[in-house]
Amino acid sequence: KDTTPQSSCCLQVPLRFQTQQSTRGDLVTHPPPPTTHTPSLIMSGVIKGTSRIGPGKAGAKSQRPAPPTQFRRFYERGDFPIALGCDSTGNTITWKVDIEKLDYHHYLPLFFDGLCETTHPYDFFAQRGIRDMLKNGGPKILPVIPQLIIPIKNALNTRDPRIVQATLKVLQELVKSAPMVGEAIVPYYRQILPVMNIFRSNNSNSGDGIDYSQQKRVNLGDLIEETLEAFERHGGPDAFINIKYMIPTWESAVLN
Question: For 188-225, what is each residue's pLDDT tens digit?
Fold first, then answer.
């Protein structure tokens, strides 16, 4: 019989790996003990790496800073043939040349770029200048449409209610300014309509009070509805399906 003492350096087998013999002679392995959360995580009630506040708002309607405009730089340099005038209705624009003789490819995109302005007199000159040029442009407006999309998109992407309101009013006048203009804008709905879809339900609930924003045409939700109706009425046969693609909840104002 071997009486050599066993070495004390033998490793102890962990409990989770110990086995025992069943009644049938098979070896049964004990499962590992269940893991438990630390008391700090149980007390906080949140998973590690998160917070009670949550992810926060997406910020889809938050205002973006307006980029510096070329319109202001050209106006301060004196490159526009305009001056401030007055009549019985208030301030107006005095044109130093005939509007029909203007180069619309050069001036109209610059005036649309001024839609991002919110300070006087830049915003006044930009918006009034656009209306005068659309009123007297005629066939000169249609070839310039591709150059107007980026300034319109930049103005809408600011999410500033004042800028968006002015841009929507200008868009309504643009599609009515000359034949085929509304149809020429249809391919660019993907650049224009996303912001309208965000603010379409932006209406104030005044209860039984009087909402003067409708009379003053500063209610954003109503302006978007008017603009979409103008797009559909003047955009030709493909206008509705393209509006419906970008704004799925839109119901036709013409077919119904």
Answer: 999 999 999 998 887 765 555 555 555 567 788 889 99
Of 171, 60, 76, which Cα lies nearest the Cα of 115?
A: 171
CB 174 within 8 A of CB 167: no
| Residues sharing a CB contact under 8 Å with residue 95, sequence separation 6 or more, in sequence order | 81, 82, 132
DSSP letter string, 80-138: SSEEEEEETTEEEEEESS-GGGS-HHHHHHHHHHGGG--STTHHHHHHHHHHHHHHHHG
DSSP code, position 9? T
Phi and psi angles of residue 87, each rounded to the nearest 5 degrees, phi first: -145, -165
DSSP 54-74: -S----TTS--PPPPPHHHHH
| pTM of the predicted model as reported, rounded to 2 decimal places | 0.74
Give the total residue count for the chain.
256
- DSSP string for residues in 140-199: GSGGGHHHHHHHHHHHHHT--HHHHHHHHHHHHHHHHHSTTHHHHHGGGHHHHHHHHHHH
- The average confidence (pLDDT) of the chain is 81
Does the bond joining 121 to the residue before it have cis omega, within 30 degrees of 0? yes
Measured CA angle at 64 (ends 125, 149), to 5 deg: 55
Strand partners, 95: 82
How many angstroms separate the Cα of 125 from the Cα of each of 37, 109, 151, 175, 252? 66, 14, 16, 21, 35
Model pLDDT, residue 210: 57
With a CB cutoff of 8 Å and minimum separation 6, the contacts of 63 are 158, 159, 160
